[in-house]
Amino acid sequence: MSGRSTITSLIVETSRGPCIARTRITLYAIMDYLKSGLSHDVVKQDFLLSDEQLHAALQYLAAHREELEYQYAEIIQRSEERRAHYEQLYRARTKFPPHLSSAEKVALMRQQLAQGQQDTRPEHANDHSPRS
């Protein structure tokens, strides 16, 4: 088998982008690791890749770098737009001011829950005197 056909059989196109065959590991994830300065050994260890899989990924990245970087930039942009959209929805629906920490929100929710439970108790719930 030639080196070219081996590489292409180890890298497959999916709806998520190019991936290492028989895995869910995208080449975008490997690009992130490499761009952050992590070594090939760290990439292999974290993704549980064989030497052959890593070699195929590196060759594919080198041969398609410009195209992959463009596609990945589009993915990141769409992701940020979605995040902003859902953050806006959350802010519109939440009862809490945006400056509260998670711990403060939990405390406020507990306080509101306790208040709600007190408001729903009958007036004489603790009155055990016989009624005539």
Describe this structure as you would to a colleague:
- The protein starts with a helix and ends in a 12-residue tail after the last helix.
- It has one domain.
- With 132 residues, the protein is mainly alpha-helical.
- Helices cover 66% and strands 6% of the residues.
Keywords, please?
132 residues, mainly alpha, two-stranded antiparallel sheet, elongated
Query: What is the succession of H and E elements?
Result: HEEHHHH
Structure classification: mainly alpha
The total beta strand count reads: 2
Rounded to the nearest angstrom, the distance between the terminal CA atoms is 97 Å
- By DSSP (H or I, 4+ residues per run), the number of helices equals 5
Mean pLDDT: 86
Q: Helicity level, as a percent range?
A: 55-70%
> Quick one: biggest sheet?
2 strands, antiparallel
Strand content: 5-15%
Domain unit count: 1
Residue stretches low in confidence (pLDDT < 50, at least 5 long) are 1-6
Strand order of the largest sheet: 1-2
How would the global form be characterised? elongated
Rg (CA only) = 27 Å
SSE layout:
Elements: H1 3-10, E1 11-14, E2 17-20, H2 27-35, H3 40-47, H4 51-93, H5 102-120
Short account of what is shown:
The chain has 132 residues and is mainly alpha-helical. It has helices at residues 3-10, 27-35, 40-47, 51-93, 102-120; strands spanning 11-14, 17-20.
